[in-house]
Amino acid sequence: MPRRQNQPQHHSRRPSAVNAQPELIRWGVIGPGRAAGRFAQGLAGVPNTALHAVWGRNPARALDYAQRFNVPHLAADIPSLLAAPIQAVYVATHPDTHAAFCCAALDSGKHVLCEKPAALNVPQLESILEAAHRNGRLFMEAMKPPFFPLYQKLRARLAADPIGSIGFVRAGHCDSTLSPDYPLHFRELGGGSILGIGPYEAFLALDWLGDLKRVHAIGRLNEHGVDSFALFQTEHARGMAQLHTGIDLLSLGDALLCAPGGYVRIHANWWNPARATIHYRDGREVLLDEPFLHGGFNYETAHFCNLVRGGNRESPEITHALSLAMARLLQDARLQLGVQFPGE
Fold first, then answer.
1. What is the rounded CA–CA span in Å between residue 96 and residue 118?
2. E strand or H helix at 173
């Protein structure tokens, strides 16, 4: 699936005055956990936005979040949050509830940015996209790497001074520092390393190699029935990838892109890219160094807000087709390992 294949729909708007202040986008947060904290940190770096409301299953955690980030509306339930004067919702709960919360927000007329993975499986993601189309609202999966300055600079550099078509991608990350009660350890919460870490790896392979042809996965499960380590090899329209994820080992977290005229190493942590080295076949080495600000969530959020202001209903970067392709890759990999979630 070629990058940026599906173009967003545009809706007419009245012309604005020259130098008019951009529309203020007010946000509500569903799920005040770690990702939502980084989202709030990033939102502080996005002009003309405000964090207005929050709801969480744990009232104490939601109150703490509201106090830390000066959120004026602490919602008692989801209907209360969706009734608040907000234009957009960031869904950052465990994956088992993404589909229900995304559909509820879209049906209430809100635009939705959903933390990866957007859903547990392909049918759930299809239901979210149908709700977005039905209500004429923007839905985007939160996949941050392509919006980082480094990633964009890398694309530009390879276009200007190419190494040829990327034919092999190697990427992965294992994190054994997670506490035993961390959600990724539990099947009923949509856990496992493939869903928890794998969306980034799936994105990288699809972004550089195109349409998925097939997946071959091996790995092991923990006592709760989710993958604690997975190694999956994928074949694509333009090459192959070797990807790994884990929650019982520790690995570096860099990435490799290989082509006939050279290779690229995106330094760890590659999904928060700040440095990359391009090694050319003629012996040249080019180091790209692009630090990021505000924790990095700000770049995808700024992109999303600009889409809302422009009347777009789909991102040209993280298209619905790309989200579906990532979901299919991850679903195929975990089902090969025997990981099934309640209701599947």
1. 10
2. strand 168-174
| Overall number of domains in the chain | 2
Note if the pTM is more than 0.70. yes
Q: pLDDT value at position 15?
A: 42
Residue 3 lies in a domain: no
CB crowding 26-52: b at 16 or more within 10 Å, else e = bbbbbbbbebbbbbbebbebbeebbbb
Hey, what are 70's tokens?
């000066």
Are the CB atoms for 318 and 118 separated by under 8 Å? no
- How many Å apart are CA 133 and CA 165, to the nearest integer? 35
> Same structural domain for residues 198 and 219?
yes
Cα(71)–Cα(65) distance, rounded to whole angstroms? 8
Contact by Cβ (8 Å): 306, 56: no
Angle at 101 between CA 96 and CA 103, to 5 degrees: 115
Q: Is residue 20 part of a domain?
A: no
The parent domain of residue 308 ranges over 25-145+297-318
Q: Helix, strand or coil for residue 83?
A: coil
Rounded distance between C-alpha atoms, residue 17 and residue 322, angstroms: 36
Q: In what order do the strands lie in the sheet with 139-142?
A: 73-74, 49-55, 25-30, 88-91, 111-115, 139-142
Token pair 């630090």 is found at 291
Whether residue 14 is predicted with pLDDT greater than 50 in this model: the reply is no
pLDDT score of 16 more than 60 = no
Amino acid identity of 86? I
